[in-house]
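Protocol step 4 of 6: structure prediction from sequence.
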Amino acid sequence: MIKLTSFRYFYPERPKLIHPDQLGQYEGKGYVAEPKFNGSRLCLHFTEGAFSFWNRHYQKMVYVPSREVTHALNSLNLKGYWLFDGELRHNKVIGVKHKIVLWDVFVADGVLLLEAPYEQRRTLLWSQGLPEENGGPLGIPKHFTEGFRGVFEGFLQADEIEGLVLKRLDGRLNLGRNRAVESNWMRKVRKPSGRYHF
């Protein structure tokens, strides 16, 4: 077990891109699907009693949280050093500001969770009292366990949803110290857009 007491930057993994036609291949094989929000990848650190916001390129974000976001974060009542993986939903989509969705937790009370499977890390997020995303300032994405193609097509008209991320429940972290690496337990499928077509 690796214990950390102060700030450490870890590059989050990059999900491997797949085509929507491949979604069915992952059903019934230990995967869950989550909506991918249009925002900025967020590495949220809690150390020395305060939160700091970093992006996926090891750069500190120029972001001042709203009173509602600050209250929601402080309600977690964290101790020690924590590092969360998430998405800052702020000014990328018209009408969406000051919202955070947390995908994962990398460090919990100083423990680097390299050996903990995703299912256990997700349960740890729930144990902090985080709600399922419902439009509030802070939440966890909804999980889908089946019908991945139908879920994907159901989000095609949702402005803020870019696609789906599939995650293996037994997936273990492979965090980078010098650069991001492609994940062997996460897959991403994107909606067609002006920038991306199948």
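Step 5 (inspection) to follow. Residues 8-190 form a domain with the D-amino Acid Aminotransferase; Chain A, domain 1 fold (CATH 3.30.470.30).
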